[in-house]
Amino acid sequence: MSRPLLKPLLVLAFACLAAMVLSVGTGSVSVSPGQVLAVLLGEGSNLQQTLVLELRLPRTLSAFATGGLLAVAGALMQVLLRNPLADPYVLGLSGGAAVGALLAMLAGLGGLLVSGSAFAGALLSTLMVFGLAHGTGSWTPSRLLLTGVVVAAGWGAVITLMLAVSPAQRLPGMLYWLMGDVSYARSPWPALGLLFLVCLLVVPLGRSLNVLARGPMQAAALGVSVRPLEWMIYILASLLTATAVTMAGSIGFVGLVVPHMLRLVLGNDQRLILPACALAGGALLVLADTLARVVIAPEQLPVGVITALLGVPTFLYLLYRSR
Amino acid sequence: MNPLQTRQLVIDIPGRPDGQPLNFTIEPGQIWGVLGPNGAGKTTLLHTLAGLRAPRSGEVCLGERSLTDWKRRQVSQQLGLVFQDRQDGFPATVLETALIGRHPWLSPWQMESGEDERIARQALEKLDVGHLSDRLVNTLSGGERQRVAIATLLTQAPDTLLLDEPTNHLDLHHQVSVLELLTAQASGGHSVFMCLHDLNLASRWCDHLLLMFPDGEACWGPAKKMLVPSALERLYDQALLSVEVDGVPLFVPRKT
């Protein structure tokens, strides 16, 4: 069984690498794939060194980490709620993060404080959704989903209100943040580390997740401690989302679409799907970010626009064909 | 093996009086049938026996220890349950579904081995769904899904098999072959405990019966002693005619 798991992952890993090399090489000054590899090995001219290692690589890695985190978070939420519609955005997590970030921007704070505020907003939203859905004890997936959707709608209204009352000079920054943009991302390493850790964690947890996907009663009958596992998934997914949103603003669609595309092709073994989501989500966002940089260069588009514009038709096509 | 046992067990059905506390032991080799009208609490009892639901009072024991003192994983190695309704959130093939039954037997780091797959395939063959192993479960008919669920239980291979209406959706031939299969399990030293709606299947294949009345009253014992027309008429609130075939009583509803 381990061999059929390995092959798709290797293919995806190779695709990721190709996407990254392409992304690092593309821009106002293009660097060929061969030169990119040379720079990574410590060769190449000073200009190329600076361009690749200091300017483009961090951004590419940030895009990869963000996409990977969002896709894995989406896949986890879908297993938790046994509902293909679940995703961090639908569940109101990103709405909370956005409100947090915009509040910080309105207060004239910058940089780290915006990120921190976004993180706090995402966690607050998580607690709210789970607390309210948990309420009187019964915690059904549909109730959780509905609570999330309603909370997300509430955040949406708050965001609109904040945009309406904001001073005009702050609006562009806020809008860009809302649409998702990796250009403000700081060091990608913590996020990459988190992504890697989660992929490792999936190995021992994966089969339990497969069983949980059959429903909590069946899972309990097969020896899974359902409640602790469910809490763990939720906390993990929230942490992943909060990290991604903090890095790159609110990028929709990756968490919903990537796991689905992969499930249509690879089946539904979480031990395969979750690492595959990390790779495919990462690659998708790297490519989207590359496009976002070049389509109307020297101007840049927010990457969230690209993911949605590319993702929507692809997803609809796959869904249409899958019947 | 550790036989499943109830001690002064009262299942928790909201708004119902306690009724008769249950005290019985499902010994190896026995086939128990649970009979009762809709809403008598048959499914709740099965879930309580499997440890998925807390009882109102009393306890369920596996061997000498209470179910709650065992680890969930150890319980699932000894006790398996076929549910009445199944949710298939994500598409999965028949073989993948059956393989899920190996979960209690594998450590977190282990992948399913060829041996696990062999066990699953064998169980699917026994239930006459081996030829469907690559099909997606959600494309199967109700009866085929029911057989896949029973095959999953056989793959789990617990000592005590709990089944919630295992003959649901099955055609006559498959009803009989499933009950024959369960009989074979029991003669192999397993114990079987199932809810049934068909009095005559219960009469022909069960050696012990538990009758559950809607008011919480209950009685249990060897099948011969339980299959009294007057008790069954009271159980279902339905007039019955009884005939004897092959030495066991069979029942048909009386026309009004």
Q: Your description of this structure?
A:
- The complex is a heterodimer of chains A (323) and B (256).
- Chain A has 13 helices and no strands.
- Chain A is mainly alpha-helical.
- Chain A has one domain: ABC transporter involved in vitamin B12 uptake, BtuC, CATH 1.10.3470.
- In chain A, helix 8 (189-212) packs antiparallel against helix 12.
- With 256 residues, chain B is α/β, with parallel strands linked by helices.
- Chain B has a single domain (4-253), classed as P-loop containing nucleotide triphosphate hydrolases (Rossmann fold, 3-Layer(aba) Sandwich).
- Chain B is built from 9 helices and 12 strands.
- Chain B has a 6-stranded mixed beta sheet with strand order 6-7-8-3-9-10, with helices on both faces. Chain B has a 4-stranded antiparallel beta sheet with strand order 2-1-4-5, with no helix packed on it.
- In chain B, helix 4 packs across helix 5 (142-156).
- In chain B, 42% of the residues are buried.
- Classes of the chains: A mainly alpha (323), B alpha/beta (256).
- The interface between A and B is medium-sized, with 28 and 35 residues.
Write down the Rg of chain A: 20 Å
Average pLDDT level of chain A: 85
CATH fold type of chain B? Rossmann fold
Number of domains of chain B: 1
* Fourth CATH level, the homologous superfamily of chain B: P-loop containing nucleotide triphosphate hydrolases
CATH architecture of chain A: Orthogonal Bundle
